[in-house]
Design brief:
This protein is an alpha+beta fold. About 50% of the residues lie in helices and about 15% in strands.
């Protein structure tokens, strides 16, 4: 830094220092102070210079503000009478704010005394500080989750005015999360409250890059959507109305990260073309750094040109911005009155469709909102248990300082003075615990956030930031005051006669103090019971989810999902030729046991539904909805599934042969009851796709869509008898333990067939199942961690109270034993008291669990929220832990 700049900064610093002093002091001594302080700073070395800057500012805060405020409103007059060399501040005749020292001197004395007290008892300080650190750190981590996902506004101007409209389907009596393009246009024309109303979707597309073809998330949107969110391009332009025309040139917008990674940040990128699904798209703009829509994920956005616009394909979501003259209440009333006539999908004629509004943020975070609030409530309960623990420790310690407090009162200390002194100690303890808790939050927060980012919306925002640090600081101060206020109030009103006569040890303490400590222990046990039981419900649900019977062997199964660009494989013959070649080469791989083509791979394929009528039912009646799977004869062999009755599909089920179908147990039971399904016929589909199929086999129910998906009626048709199904995936079984090797071989094989075809992925089915359980696993483990923490803190609390009681009653116990009491009687006497507190706490906790467990009902898999085994396990665990915590002090007392 140049000398001129250094001089300017130094003069600004000296002016700031002088501003802290009263005007009269500045007039009389300002020049001399500036000269001396400036000379010291200029001649000092770099390290000493920083020290002098901070020291000068600290002296100004203490001395200058003391001159201003120590004398109240007449501080200026007092400053005029002051002469630093002759009348020190501490000897002023003006009454200070707190006692005989200035406010700042007194605070300094209180915190210095508090620090000495904490250092004098390192074991007690470490136990209390670690307890607070645990609660504050965990609360900070969960608060950062809630803040990032729920509280932080979306990164768009006036984001609360962004509204989505969803159609209510009266035929199926449910909301449509996605709608067709014609319905989106009809809603836009009918509604009046939203401006810049459009539609969008997020798809996975094949993008050809210099590094090879890749499957990337791509946003598809109409031109109004980006204007609704207030987007402005960094370079180029946004989409316009002409880009939405069906035959318009296809346009693409790049995200800032995609532009930097794949185009090196070149400004000449505008006007270039890139291949998406084998079709050229012209780059018309680059979005600024940090722009995301609708959530983190899409790296590029394409126009609607060439996208499906038929009424039978639902794939779009809507978005618009509330007009300036509309409030949310007015708009919601307008949407409630909106009615649309759309063609019926199940019968001739039309049906009346209504729309349901929701803000964009609500649709993004609505599903995770309840569980995040549950996490926050659970961690607050842990924090309360930690605070109760520390408050109990403080009560025990304050009871041992009764003589000290009585002596201070006898010497003239007022209650306010005693309160300030004791609260300064707990505030310092809270700050120390908060610092340690923030360090713990930094360590465990990254793990928690990485686990949550896989399924939590706005996952790219997760992490500790300035708001989390500020929250931790405020929480530390608040906790320090809260845990100390009750012990301080108790200790600040000592009984002088009893306190001055109190012996150093052997007293049982006052009855009020004992009842208060016992009440805090009961509260700890009750909160721990609520957390432990609810965590047990989630863990048992996770265990049942992990042991779900899939109906087939999942080990060593791989899915192969090549994605040939439609533009290059538009001809069905070329598509069939590609898959035939792939199938032939797959069978030559050394680590492959079996392979099958299917339109639905487990846990990740297409979910097709059709209407079906059993033999003899009138086709004019509504048919039963069934899941339709199109597979080749090896499908069941790859899964390791055998038929329950009849046969499976074979190579003889080819074009020209009688059309056949294999059904699952649920369909056979629902359609035919106790009658045999074999040989019966099903009519499937309507119109040109209607076909009559003979049931030749029944297989077990297969869990193909998800671990928690309900089992539905399902049919399996032969791929050879459905020639229109020309885009199957592949399901392969690797040799035992060689799934990773086979995955690499498949990737190389597909690349050798066509380098421009990426694989959507060939993950092992076990990995997919683990991914399906990620959210349940995170939820269960997090609440289990809270429950175990609460258990440990509650046990420590019981042990602390019982050990303290034994210590205070040592003399009494000795007298009892001298008068003939046996060791067993003393042991039973102490344990009885501990178990009484435990029983009361468990009873209250059981009532709390019954009142709160219904909040978890939607997250439980085949488990009641009032599961008796879980409740009994939690009660037993807490009872045994409390018994052990009571037994150790009791054993010591009996000796």
């Amino acid at each position: 830094m140049s000398d001129d700049k250094s001089g300017i900064l130094l003069r600004a610093y000296l002016r700031l220092v002088l501003l802290l002093y009263p005007p009269e002091f500045r007039r009389r001594h300002g020049d001399e102070l500036q000269r001396l302080l400036g000379q010291d700073i200029r001649t000092a070395g770099l390290r000493q210079r920083w020290y002098l800057l901070w020291a000068g500012l600290a002296d100004a805060v203490k001395g200058g503000l003391g001159l201003r405020f120590a004398g109240g409103p007449a501080g200026g007059a007092r400053a005029r009478r002051l002469k630093p060399s002759r009348r020190p501040i501490a000897h002023s005749h003006r009454p200070p704010l707190w006692g005989r020292a200035s406010m700042f001197d007194q605070l300094q004395q209180d915190f210095a005394y508090a620090f000495r007290n904490l250092v004098r008892r390192p074991g007690w300080t470490l136990a209390a500080g670690a307890t607070l650190a645990l609660g504050i750190g965990a609360t900070t981590v969960v608060f950062s989750l809630v803040n990032d996902v729920l509280l932080r506004p979306l990164p768009y101007p006036d984001s609360e005015r962004l509204v989505q409209l969803r159609a209510y389907d009266p035929e199926r009596q449910r909301l449509r999360e996605v709608i067709s393009y014609p319905l989106c246009q009809s809603i836009g024309e009918a509604q009046q409250a939203l401006q810049d109303f459009g539609c969008y979707a997020v798809n996975t597309n094949t993008v050809e890059l210099q590094s090879g073809a890749r499957r990337l998330l791509t946003g598809v949107l109409t031109w109004q959507v980006l204007r609704a969110v207030g987007a402005e391009p960094l370079m180029g332009r946004l989409f316009n109305a002409s880009d939405d025309q069906p035959d318009a040139p296809r346009a693409v917008l790049l995200s800032f990260g995609f532009w930097q990674e794949h185009f090196g940040g070149q400004r000449e990128v505008l006007g270039q073309t890139m291949q998406i699904e084998g079709t050229p798209y012209t780059i018309v703009g680059v979005m600024p750094r940090g722009f995301v829509f609708p959530d983190y994920g899409p790296g590029l956005w394409v126009s609607m040109a060439g996208r499906p616009r038929t009424a039978n394909i639902n794939w779009l979501r809507t978005l618009g911005r509330l007009g300036p003259d509309w409030t949310h209440a007015q708009a919601w009333a307008h949407f409630d009155a909106l009615r649309l006539e759309v063609p019926s999908r199940r019968a001739e004629g039309s049906v009346e469709v209504t729309v349901r509004p929701a803000t964009l943020k609500e649709t993004l975070v609505g599903e995770v909102r309840p569980q995040l609030w549950i996490f926050l409530a659970a961690v607050v309960a842990v924090l309360l248990i930690a605070c109760i623990n520390v408050a109990n420790l403080l009560l025990s310690r304050m009871a041992g300082r009764t003589r000290e407090m009585a002596l201070r009162c006898a010497l003239g200390a007022g209650r306010r003075r005693l309160l300030a002194q004791m609260l300064s100690e707990t505030t310092l303890l809270g700050l120390l615990g908060g610092a340690a808790g923030l360090a713990a939050a930094l360590l465990i927060g990254s793990v928690v956030h990485s686990m949550a980012s896989d399924f939590v919306p706005r996952g790219h925002l997760l992490g500790l930031d300035g708001s989390a640090y500020f929250f931790a600081a405020v929480l530390s101060l608040t906790v320090g005051l809260l845990v100390g206020i009750l012990p301080a109030l108790r200790a600040s009103r000592p009984d002088l006669n009893a306190g001055l006569r109190e012996s150093a040890r052997g007293s049982a303490g006052s009855l009020r103090h004992n009842r208060l400590r016992a009440g805090l222990v009961v509260a700890q046990i009750a909160l721990a019971m609520v957390l432990l039981a609810n965590a047990g419900l989630l863990l048992r649900s996770l265990q049942r989810l992990a042991s779900t019977d899939l109906g087939y062997r999942s080990a060593d199964l791989l899915t192969v999902r090549p994605s040939p660009p439609f533009a290059r494989y538009r001809n069905p013959e070329s598509m069939r030729s590609f898959y035939a070649d792939l199938r032939q080469r797959l069978e030559g791989l050394p680590h492959l046991e079996a392979a099958s083509a299917t339109a639905c791979v487990p846990m990740g394929g297409v979910h097709m539904q059709e209407n079906a009528w059993p033999q003899g039912q009138d086709l004019e009646e509504p048919g039963e909805s069934v899941d339709a799977q199109i597979v080749d004869p090896d499908f069941f062999r790859v899964l390791g599934v055998s038929s329950l009755r009849g046969r499976l599909l074979t190579a003889g089920d080819r074009p020209g042969a009688p059309p056949v179908v294999v059904v699952n147990e649920t369909l056979a039971r629902r359609f035919f009851g106790q009658d045999p399904a074999l040989g019966s016929r099903l009519t499937v589909g309507r119109g040109q796709s209607q076909r009559e199929l003979e049931i030749v086999g029944v297989v077990p129910d297969l869990q193909l869509y998800g671990l928690t998906s309900p089992i539905r009626p399902m049919i399996f048709e032969a791929l050879a008898q459905r020639p229109e199904q020309s885009y199957p995936d592949m399901l392969v079984r690797a040799a035992p333990g060689r799934a990773a090797d086979l995955s690499r071989e498949i990737k190389n094989l597909v690349h050798s067939l066509d380098p421009g075809i990426p694989l959507v992925g060939q993950p092992a089915l076990q990995d997919q199942l683990s991914g399906h359980m990620a959210e349940d696993r995170f939820r269960s483990l997090l609440l289990a961690a809270f429950g175990v923490t609460a258990l440990l803190l509650a046990v420590i609390g019981v042990y602390g109270v019982m050990a303290y009681g034994v210590t205070r009653r040592t003399q009494e116990i000795g007298v009892r034993m001298a008068l003939g009491a046996r060791r067993g009687q003393i042991l039973a006497w102490v344990i009885r008291r501990g178990l009484l507190l435990t029983a009361v706490g468990l009873a209250l906790g059981l009532a709390g669990t019954l009142a709160t467990s219904h909040l978890l009902e939607s997250y439980l898999h085949q488990l009641s929220p009032h599961d008796q085994l879980t409740y009994a396990s939690a009660l037993t665990l807490l009872f045994i832990a409390a018994l052990m915590a009571t037994y150790l002090p009791a054993r010591r007392a009996s000796r």
